[in-house]
Automatic annotation (TrEMBL), chain A:
InterPro entries: 2Fe-2S_ferredoxin-like_sf, 2Fe-2S_ferredoxin-type, 2Fe2S_fd_BS, 4Fe4S_Fe-S-bd, Beta-grasp_dom_sf, Helical_ferredxn, SDH/FRD_Iron-Sulfur, Succ_DH/fum_Rdtase_Fe-S. Its EC number is 1.3.5.1. SUPFAM superfamilies: 2Fe-2S ferredoxin-like, alpha-helical ferredoxin. It catalyses: a menaquinone + succinate = a menaquinol + fumarate. Residues 1-103 form the 2Fe-2S ferredoxin-type domain. Residues 151-181 form the 4Fe-4S ferredoxin-type domain. It comes from the Bacteria. Its cofactor is [4Fe-4S] cluster; [3Fe-4S] cluster; [2Fe-2S] cluster. The keyword 4Fe-4S applies. This is Fumarate reductase iron-sulfur subunit.
UniProtKB/TrEMBL annotation, chain B:
The keyword Transmembrane applies. It comes from the Bacteria. It comes from Salinimicrobium marinum. Keywords: Membrane, Transmembrane, Transmembrane helix. One of its GO terms (cellular component) is membrane. The keyword Metal-binding does not apply. The gene is sdhC. This is Succinate dehydrogenase.
From TrEMBL, chain C:
This is succinate dehydrogenase. Pfam families: FAD_binding_2 (PF00890), Succ_DH_flav_C (PF02910). Belongs to the FAD-dependent oxidoreductase 2 family. FRD/SDH subfamily. Its cofactor is FAD. Keywords: Cell membrane, Electron transport, FAD, Flavoprotein, Membrane, Oxidoreductase, Transport. It comes from Salinimicrobium marinum. NCBIfam families: PRK07573.1, sdhA_Bsu. InterPro entries: FAD-dep_OxRdtase_2_FAD-bd (IPR003953), FAD/NAD-bd_sf (IPR036188), Fum_R/Succ_DH_flav-like_C_sf (IPR037099), Fum_Rdtase/Succ_DH_flav-like_C (IPR015939), SdhA/FrdA/AprA (IPR030664), Succ_DH/Fum_Rdt_flav_su (IPR011280), Succ_DH/fumarate_Rdtase_cat_sf (IPR027477). Residues 36-470 form the FAD-dependent oxidoreductase 2 FAD-binding domain. It catalyses: a quinone + succinate = fumarate + a quinol. The gene is sdhA.
Amino acid sequence: MNLTLKIWRQKDAKAKGGIQTYQIADVDPDMSFLEMLDVLNEGLVEKGEEPVVFDHDCREGICGTCSLQINGEPHGPDRGVTTCQLHMRKFKDGDTIVIEPFRAKAFPVIKDLIVDRSAFERIQQAGGYVSVNTSGNTQDANSIPIEKEKADAAFFAATCIQCGACVAACKNASAMLFTSAKVSQYALLPQGKVEATKRVLDMVEQMDKEGFGNCTNTGACEIECPKGISLENIARMNREYLKASVV
Amino acid sequence: MAKSALLKSSLAKKYWMAFTGLFLCVFLVGHLAGNLQLLVSGEGARDQFNEYALFMTTNPVVRILSIVTFVSILFHAIDGVILTINNRKARPQGYVSFRPSTNSTWSSRNMGILGTVILAFIVIHLVNFWGEMKFGGLDNTMYTTANGDEVKDLYSLTIMTFQDPEWGLVWAFGYLIAMIAIAFHLYHGFGSGFQSLGLNHPQYNSIVRKIGVAFAIIVPLLFAIIPFYIYFVLETI
Amino acid sequence: MGVLDSKIPQGPLADKWVKHKNDINLVNPANKRNIDVIVVGTGLAGGSAAATLAELGYNVKTFCYQDSPRRAHSIAAQGGINAAKNYQGDGDSDYRLFYDTVKGGDYRAREANVYRLAQVSGNIIDQCVAQGVPFAREYGGLLDNRSFGGVLVSRTFYAKGQTGQQLLLGCYSAMNRQINRGKIKSYTRHEMLDLVLVGGKARGIIARNLVTGEIERHSAHAVVIASGGYGNVFFLSTNAMGSNVTASWKIHKKGAFFANPCFTQIHPTCIPVSGEHQSKLTLMSESLRNDGRIWVPKKLEDAEKIRKGELKPTDLAEEDRDYYLERRYPAFGNLVPRDVASRAAKERCDAGYGVNKTGEAVYLDFSAAFMRYGREAVATQHITNATEEQIRDLGVKVVEAKYGNLFQMYEKIVDEDPYKTPMKIYPAVHYTMGGIWVDYNLETTIPGCFAAGEANFSDHGANRLGASALMQGLADGYFVLPYTMGDYLSKDISTGSIPTDTKEFDEAEQKVRQQLESFINTKGTKTVDHFHKRLGKIMWNKVGMSRNAPNLREAIQEIKALREEFYRDVKVPGTADGMNTELEKAGRVADFLELGELFAKDALHREESCGGHFREEYQTEEGEALRDDENFMYVAAWEYTGEPGNAILHKENLEYENIEVKTRSYK
């Protein structure tokens, strides 16, 4: 396949970036999207140019490092995958592909396609944990039975990979799906219930501070989420927060 | 902390949005119930509607509700504007290529525009009828009904507006456009309100969704039929 | 030999750890506040160590090259974590977990460490559940277990196919709690580029801020290296793209011995290589072997037809399939340990039975599992007169619930539906048992420098059992280091903070700067990846799944030559004073080019086959590994002397007092 790539290039956080166009030939449909960019970069470096930098690490869709807005959608046109699992067979010969960084005030661009997602870190630092020390004499793991359904729901919420696609897809750059997934995981488990009130208040406060937009329930986040994190989590957080605020 | 969080946080803004929005849905049903009386023809129609209008403007409970309605509309609009401004700020640099149509409905992304159209309609609508009724435009139409109540003749004003040979149909279409906007607004807003308040349960989600869609179609449709009925069907007065 | 003191406590095996904990020194809470600890790497080992040390009151600084501690490659571990809880009542115990691990490691692990690992394994599960890790549960609300390769009990706790993720998020949450308290300072997008020694003790690191390019000095009273394994020396591996040996290699060059570098695990169930541009390999959890059956065609001509696309695997009758693991190892069948399964796959493919275009793939088939689970479902749901198709559909649902995400991942990558046609798999480099030599306290040969998790060599011997990496990482971080480091740090209570404006820091920083500048200034003609790929090819072909002396000698020469070429001809664009991903890679590949040589040297010196190390010269007539306990029952710890080829061998003899050393048999 031969493709035209329109890629956002930006030297550093302060520089004004812009789209640059590259042609790439002989792309193998079995390549992953990032392998296609590897080939592009190999060529750029050989020419002595700086490669296009993008975040990536595990390349198996679990670490959540890779991002990229591809043709107007986070992680590209395929559903249920991260960019590193997106394969070139999803594109056609002659296609033009626009590649941009995730855009949000809370995700400033660091360089080219790399953005700073540390806002997510700070939201979790505000309360995304159970306050329990490592002692070696915590009560036995089976001492509190947990309904399988609840445990499974907590697990599904916890499969969020913190990639930021929800923010990137949302027209309001809202981080509700991410934050609610974290809140939900703990709200569903007896271990997390003890601190539930403080947790949800603190995490939402931090989320607001970071400058994310509001949720208008468009549902774009759920559709674009590579892990299929459900909107139910947002409703659960709304509920938890209301409870925490009123009671 | 708890109290201030309920006023200032992003979630609180959504609660208010949902709460006022859902309240206005209830209001719509009440309003529609009254309007449907315009479909009644014959002798008693005028008395019935005007008696109803009198009740609505004088009953203390209804008056409180109407104040709540006004406040809700105002709050819903102002809150909406604030949310929209915040949301714009959250992405100062937009995308070169953005394809939201692949992941969300048109109405869900255009609640602000739809809301603005609806707000404009509400202003015009109030000037047309409520203002006339309230601020003396109808004072010289007072008459006594069969029941012996002294009422303003809102009924005749309404019928004449939509039966106006030159402007009646224009008004009717104007109202139709507004109702289409309300339909799309409700199409997203109804379910969204439940979601924002955290009223979400896998077992009931699809029911809420279905009721929302039905509500978004039926209520505006009935509203929209009335002007056309008056223009085309109802005998002229 | 005197150099290596493993400091194993005296006394009976089961009492060693308890006694040791009672004997070692503690630091009082007020003094802990005056002590700084650096943790490099934030995976399960580093993250859990950082969180626990911070809970205790030490001032912790964590470093990771990723943009978040939670992205460390522990996150990719799929199958599960072992613990001797015996919740299933199937006869499990600390001793049995210890026994399985030592046996699985082919008797090349240190007894006392492994026993301690088994002893604390239960605590790990308790701790994780308390943190809110959502493990899989049964309908009764209690924790579920599955079985894993190389053992006869079900002791593996899991969270679908994302166990590593959930455990890492647990320890990340514990870290976040400490960051919020101000006890951990987390440096993300930072890479450690050297260790600083003051008076022979580890007293700090030089790190590069990967965003700004700034070279930073950080001091501490002790340094923990938990930076993972070095599988990426093969270029293609299941490791993350950024996984590297740099932190381990830098401390090796400063005096930490490197143990058993040739002990590398080749994981049997990975998605086969598809083409030249492949950047990494994807693992399919070993748990799939619980229900999947591995086979190749029985007849060569069938295999050939399949390779040409003339025949589909589903067309082949049962009697034309060779379930070679079940045939060779009837007792363990498809659940033999990883090294055995990998070699068996290679043996079949080398013999011409491979089933994909490259001839390097075997089938992992779930059709039997679909029917088995289907029949179970039919029975429990009291369905009468179910057709074969209905039974299969019900079975598919059960399998989907168990492994849905893995099947989906496979389909996305390969573009074939594994519910309809068997998966194709092939072994790939996955884990490195070798690593920095540590004593019982997990301290390296540099005082004050500790190594944990995959970065150290301690617990897995020559082969690691499935679901034991997560266990070891968390054991080291949650339950071992916090005690043993306290013992070391108790001598530092009056030291005060370590200044960074000393000549030791000056020198270390200067060296780091020089290396970075030299990469930029070489201005050669070939990219960093070019060299990395060539190194990977040498490693895979000559130091891979099976090794022999002539190949290893060649590899050593080739790696040396490649290293020289790299320094002469590498091309790194851009500058060092800003984000420069090529420069980052150059540093890592430079270290791999040195490690690769030591790796081959170690493999050459170990004239036996054991665990993941298979020397063709040393095998039984049936092709099984032939260990030489007489001459090689030791840990090979290498001391750096200026060139990897000149490393000096130190031996730590392994003594098995509580376990009978046998030939591993899974038949």
